[in-house]
Each structure stands twice: as structure tokens, then as C-alpha cells.
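Re-running the complex after MR caught last week's input typo. The corrected sequence lines follow. Everything else is unchanged.
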Amino acid sequence: MSELWLLLILCTLGTYAWRGLGVLLAGRLEPDSDLFRWVSCVAYAMIAGLVMRLIVMPGGPLAGSLFWHRMFACLLGLFIYRGLKGNVFLAVGSGAAALVVLNELRGLIN
Amino acid sequence: MQSAAFWRGARESIGAPIAVIAANYLGLGAFASATAVSVWAIVVSTFTIWALPGQLVMVDMWMVGAPWVAVLLAVMLTNVRFLPMSITIMPLMRDPAHQRWRYYVTAHFIAMTSWVVCMPRLQQMPSVERISYFIGFSLNCIVVGAIFGALGYYAAASIPPAVQLGLIFLTPLNFFVLLAGEVRERMGALALACGALAGPLFHLVTPEWSVVVAGVVGGTLAFALNKMMGARRE
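Corrected-run output:
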């Protein structure tokens, strides 16, 4: 178990390294420059890439659910969010509930 | 520390974002209880790592017995997004009243939720209040995350696996809805679209490097497209 704690400390330092390096570099970049705009594009693309990867090809417990079920849940959430002018709670709740229900129905049919 | 701004941040974090964090960590805790990972590792890592996808990767890989160098590398590559996020949010925090070390403390609190939610909010308050607001907002999220992580760990037996699935899915779903639902300007929309395509694509080619490569390639493509479109309109 102590090995896990060592790993946890390493992961903590490794994760903070990115955040701290950001502070260091931010002082050298002009916020109204093309370089800064490029970094901001990379930030959004990284988040979008990671989020889509978790939706399209998840690991862990989600790997057992169907791609189309996850996609349907996302689009339902977005649809509700747009329709109800920014109610994240309802949007995300219905999406997740839809995935659970679809997944259970699949289990019943098989 | 501006205590009024700190508490305002803590108060204003209450709502949908923190509810999603609570549910997410409930899911993470429930998932972790099925592994050899202790409840303390979940609680402590929520305070020290504070990145749900990274923590999920850590627990998942630890469970399958991956070598710890591989786990560290995977966690770092999943969390590389904090570098551009930190670079872009830091200029908002700047104020002559702050000493330099404060920025380094503030950086620890950067995470997807606080970045997405606070970027527009910070611009609407005096710059001297922003660090306190941001830390108040984030710290409340962390505490709630840690509490619900522990709750999920102990309640796992009474949370059916089907529901655990829904709880874990809240992470990507929440960001999908927030990002796709709130994007306003062209550059941001292009970056999200290019990243969304590049993420899964590069995961097929190089799973361990996918976040880095997809971010740089997708972001560069979006930046270039935005430049070209801007030039054409003039």
C-alpha cells in the first residue's frame, strides 16, 4: 500500500508541474499576441479532445456501455441545455439518466 | 486574501457545477472501492491532484497492476491540459498588490470546472479580488469532491453498478454540454471542433500521447483556420 502513496505523491508533483509551468510562462507572454491566441486554441482543443475521447472510447466502467447510447445521452443533454436556456443540472441529469436506462434495457433484452 | 471575495467565490460555486462534481466524485469513490485503493488515497488525491480524469486513470491503472512509471506518465499526459489553461487564466489574476508566490499557489486550484466557469466571471470583478474569488470557488469544489468521494466509497455497495456508470459518465457529459452549449466566438468554436475530432482520432494512433498531440494539432489547425477566415473577410 505504501507504494500507492509514493505513486500518489509523484502524480501530485507531476500534475502541479503543468500548473506551475503555466504561471512561469504566462509572465513571458503578451495576452494580446498571436502566440497567446494559439495557446488558448490548444487549451480548448485539449479539453475537447479529452472529453470526446472519454465519450467515444472510455476506459473503466464506461467501457461496457454502447457508443450510440453515450452519444445519444450527450445530444439529449445538449438539446435540453439549449432548450432550457442554460439549465446544466437538468441537462446533465437527463443525459446521465438516459444512459443508465438505455444500458439497463440492453441488459434486459440480451 | 480578500475574505469577502473568497466567500463570494465559495458561495457562487454552489449550483450545477458543484452538484456535478459531487456526483462525479461519488462515482469515482464507488469505482475505487471495487479496487485495492484505500478511501484515503481518494480523499488525499482529491486535494493534491485535483483532476478527476487523472485520478480515474491512476485508480484504473493501479488496479490492473500497470508499472508505476506508466501510471505517472499517463496521469501527466492526461493532465497536460493544465499548462495552456494556466497560461491563459494567469493574466486575469495579475495585480500589483500580489506577490509572485501567490500566483503559484493559485495555480494549484486550476481545474476544468473552475477554468470554464470562472474565466468569464473573473473579468467582471476588480483584479485584486480575483485570486481570492477563484480560490474560494475552487476550494469549495475540492472539499465537496473529497466528501462525496468518501461517501461513494462507503456507499458503493448500495449504489447499483448501472447508476455508477451514469455517475462516471457525468464528467465527459458535463463538459460536452458546457463547452458545446456556451461557445460564442469563432476561434473557440473552431478549437473545440478540431480538438473533438482530433482527440479520438489520435487515441487510435497513440493512446498515451493522444491528449498532447490532439491538443497541439487540433489547436494549431483551429488557429490557422481562424486566421484564414479572418483574412478572407477583410
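None of the earlier attempt is carried over here. The two ends of chain B are 46 Å apart (CA to CA). Residues 130-155 of chain B form the longest helix (26 residues).
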